[in-house]
């Protein structure tokens, strides 16, 4: 890694941390969300008393039982004499009055247990499995005994895990909430478009991944450090982890954090959409916790290999690790660095070290999958590699960086008359069709012609299907990384970070583009000053206007000395001033660069294009300079284009543009005649020029259409293709087709428009279909929800009710591995020695170890924990190998009991011990058992019985004892193995995923302003939300039916049997009725649909889990809480739909199961089967009834839905009141008496008289004048920020019917803010806005008011239509069709538009206003402004000066001599723009002079016209830079 690459990595980290720091509220909320769970555990620890039992011995001398006469002892078989004698003898020796009953076979015994309801008092059953053949057979020397008892688990440690399972769940839950936030943030910032852009500008893929890894790794360190402090610090009485090493816990959790980060990376490679990746990834991560429930049930039967294998899931490894941590804590040992390679107990061979290694292995495997998927499926970020790429030498060693020196000839097209010869003096920078250094190549085409695809191919997003593309001699399919080092790219959509400022963007990309540190500040300042953005350098990008964002994108593309620059519609959305600044900057920066630019502005192409290429339907039709193309496609070279703007009274001042052609020799006389007869002929204005680029563009597309027609005629198989393309390219229509357009529009005008109730029905139907289509188009999310219900819910339900027969367990020491059996002998006797010898034989047969006490006497100390270092000495004395790290012996009188009491570690490796005390006339045998192993008592007795039996019958005698749980009685409580709350927990996850979906479209439409457009178009609030609510309930009901199918499959009869599915469906639908409006309300808290979906899904899930937990605690400690606390808890819980649903489902399930139990013919000893209970319906208000929860769900729906409608209708009025009445008044009080300073004195001095008259006219109108579509009265908008921003400054306006009014201004002048106020999206600070007499500043949500406005075109009978920058991004043909439509619309309504195209405003607007810093600076019709400010002609001449620059100077001298009083407006690259005073010469004479100068001075092209609206706009919009108003009058 070189220094510049390291800088890239560092600046990526800086960018990630800066973005996170700017979202400080979200960051704090994430941390608190994680920490709330450890805090809950701390509070639980404070409220609960915990204590540890010391291990001690209980010698078994006799058998005691309370009320023994009530219990039964069963034996099998009962028809064998010796067995009957043994059982009677046992009863006598135990000295208890227990009933003894025998059965002839084991089958009879099991039938008795299952069907006889008196069997619940069976203590145990002893089965002699000896294959007796007759009743008089004796017992064999090797006997098998099976004892049966109540069903229990193998070890008590299982209960420890179950007891602390809540701790595990809560810890995992807190970690999951942070993971979802981090994963969503990662998916959002690593989206395909943003990552693609970073790769294109030169970043390497691994650097991006590494930066994200270390970013989130750092935040994990903070989170886990805080958790470890809370767990290990002594905050209350005792810390949660008293014995464990906090540093080890930190490392363990960090290993899991690393695996989680790589898991997120892996999941993200399978998805392209942010919301789907974040949703699916979070659900998959959460779902990986579920297998732990099954694993823990079978854990005792799993081998070490299986346990290690399940740790391939990092969350399962986390769960197993926490369970071991809890075990060691309960053993008062804890997990430390010195015991991570020791097993927790004898029965569990999975050690903590394996878990740590598996977590790291998981991270490695997840990373491998990420790398592989990212390489073969990079999406739109890179060229995909073959699946076997890792076997290719070129992948690891890189492609050979061979630079192609010999240029490709005849690239891409066969030369013909439509392609200009290429210059031989320039070097080809891009070789498709040669694009040369020092030139700006313009690529034109209609929308969808293939321009963006070309740029995607050049940036490496897509590989070429065939042929080759070279950039600076490098093949893009082999050396794309080398190409990207010198590539600058401006995409069609601005890819900026919302929370970075302009200067931070430029700093970031300057480092990414490997600019040295001492150069970045200079280049940044130069770029900002060129684009007039120095004042905005510390402004966040999300606060910039659209034009400013485009400027920033262009600066990023140009900086860093990029040799090849690709610009995709760079000036789209810019105002004319910014567009010209961009042109000048591109002209400056094109030296030694190859620039490819796409645009829809023909004047931009004409001005910038060195060569201009036109594409039609993916094919390059022509390429050459603008002069070459005009000459090629203009057959009448001796003609002049005359443009007339005619005044047509029928259309009430709608302007029509007419293009006429005349011979040059007739043109001078024609112009003179038109000037004299202009008013008489109704001509508003006229101009003259030769062929324009717009005409060339239209003609090229028409010729391409005609060629397709010819091909379709000769080749029938092309006919279908032609028809499909005609439908796609139906906008390719010249202006002379406008008659057919008007005829179709006139037909539409005759369509009857619905009003009243039919209109509401039509709107409701449309909104309903729209919602359904949104759901259908998100089919991947729908499949995800189906899989959650079918897979996860089914799995959880089956897990909850799953029961399996526990196998027979042999009571043998070998079940615990190789253990240690200490013993002690006090006194000497032959019996004692015989017993010890038999014990040695028995243990050797079982592969166990017996320890001689004299070893302890030799060493004289307890060997714990230094056993490892002393092991060789022990082995030499004992004569046996020592297996196991720990053991313990005794000194004092060789008594084992003392060692067991003093050394707690001993219990981990010993199950039983034996003490023999020889007295005068008796020998006392004491067997000791380890209470931690559940069957150790019976196993210890089995060892002692075998030793005694061997002493009596010889060394070959043995007794084999096995334990098997009794079968469960059919009438027992196991009939209802789960309660209703467990069922609710199983349903909570799937229902949370489903309910959370209903916020997606709501947030999307609100953030994209789609909802606002619908409201403005006349849709009422009630229609909008009720249609959405109806579809969402239908969608929810479909999944409820699917859930009923899951209940049927899982045999949940309580929900489906005996028509109970109707009750279940009613509960589910009531839950949907109340929860869906709550999701609508929650959606207002989010600006991202994906974030809303994830957070609301978590809210639904955890609200269910926590409400259940609170309910259980509240009823368990019912009397311990004051009455008002209980009332408060109940009141809060009843407001949650999830709680009422949980109670309804659980109580419904419990009621069904208990009544089903009561129908069996058994004594009523387990449940209350009184007549009152059986006959009482579950729909009651009692303790077990669900009526109150039903009513609560219904009321919640009736509460949340009106609350939603009320919030939607009154929020705007409330906001308007706050800003209009309170904040503005407070601001006025503080600013009263202070003189406001204006940055430019010219603004105060210059004010148009027309604007004053308009203000007086607006103020004089009565407030409820309904025949005036739009009235603004002293409208003001102030944003109370720091500093205060005055967006609109006291403007007044009246827009009449049949009028098209245009708002013009630079980016940030206040146009969009004015539009937002007019459409009700923003509130006013002061003033009034009247639409058809209605004051929208009072309530914009009134249906009667909404019906007067429209954001669309004609498909609603509105009186006012608002169009904001309507033609941005449209090609010329589509733009002409749009203009024709709008002109036709002026017949029936008022139209208000904003635009950056002066040609568009001149063609459409009857009046317009130019805004400067929130104020109108001039107002009137286009012709009025031209007459007022147009006292000059505009002359634009293009001179071919490359080889003879002297011609340019001579031409300047010629203009100075011929036209005195001229002003040079702009000059660059051989293009000169002059203002020629009108009084100096007439237009016709001027034309004849220029015709003579064309040949004399080598003019390529020229145009003469009166001052255009754009030139006036440029002057007025920059009035603060104009020295005096006389400079304007000079025009």
Describe the structure.
This protein has six domains: 3-48 and 172-389, no CATH class; 68-152, no CATH class; 427-632, Rossmann fold, CATH 3.40.50; 809-956, no CATH class; 972-1206, no CATH class; 1240-1422, 3-Layer(aba) Sandwich (Rossmann fold), CATH 3.40.50. Helix 6 (165-189) runs antiparallel to helix 41 (1089-1116) and helix 40 runs parallel beside helix 45. 51% of the residues lie in helices and 14% in strands. It has 56 helices and 37 strands. The protein is elongated. A seven-stranded antiparallel sheet has the order 16-15-17-37-34-36-35, sandwiched between helices. A six-stranded mixed sheet has the order 2-1-3-4-23-18, sandwiched between helices. The protein has a six-stranded mixed sheet with strand order 10-11-12-7-13-14, sandwiched between helices. The relative contact order is 0.06. The C terminus is likely disordered. Strand 32 (1407-1412) and strand 33 (1415-1420) form a beta hairpin. It is α/β, with parallel strands linked by helices.
